[in-house]
Task: structure prediction
Amino acid sequence: MIAAGHQPNYLPWLGFFDKMRHSDIFIIEDNVQFERQGFTSRNRILTADGVRWLSVPVEHVNRPLPINEVKIANKGEPNWRSRHWLTIKHGYCKAPHWTEFSGFFEDTYQRDWTRLIELNMHLIRGIMQFLKIDSPLILSSTLGVQGKKTQLIVAQCKKVGATIQLAGDGCRNYIDRSLFEKEGIKLVFQNFRQPVYLQGNGGFVFSNLSVIDYLFYNGGKPW
Result:
């Protein structure tokens, strides 16, 4: 059985879902520490003015928090939902697949959200349906295992009965392969290649954007 995992990013990029598609079980790392400048609360989309960041405002506290405890700063920035929705709408309303997918996102930004994890998981599950991905998701906070970095990943694999860990290509240089070998778990790395498609009126210009760029311009077909 192949296991993979990732933090629950906000409007993740296509590579996130590619790793999910190639796994038998996907672990959402919801109880690792939240990084303020990471992709858990922000991502990039393409607009007529170029690439724009969409950032979900989060409440500031004086201590590190796990992702599943982070609250959205609705009082501090009450208009963030309408701002995100209008930016998406202006960026993609002329895209060929806008009508097909826009209703889900419009509904999402009309809802009230308290915790970041709730918003992100709603978006992730909805996008999975558009991409026809049915890999089961499990929250790491429900596994009852502990550890740091590679030790944590190995412990999670053992807990879910995985014999293969599918790791992101970006962790090649720091993951401890010997820990997997010791437990008899095969470690393989993701081989994701960004698909090229027509963006707007030009060719393919920007890679590593939120998956919604792929959806609105290319539809939910396999890459």
Notes: The mean pLDDT is 95. The helical segments are 14-21, 80-92, 98-108, 116-130, 150-160, 177-182, 211-218.
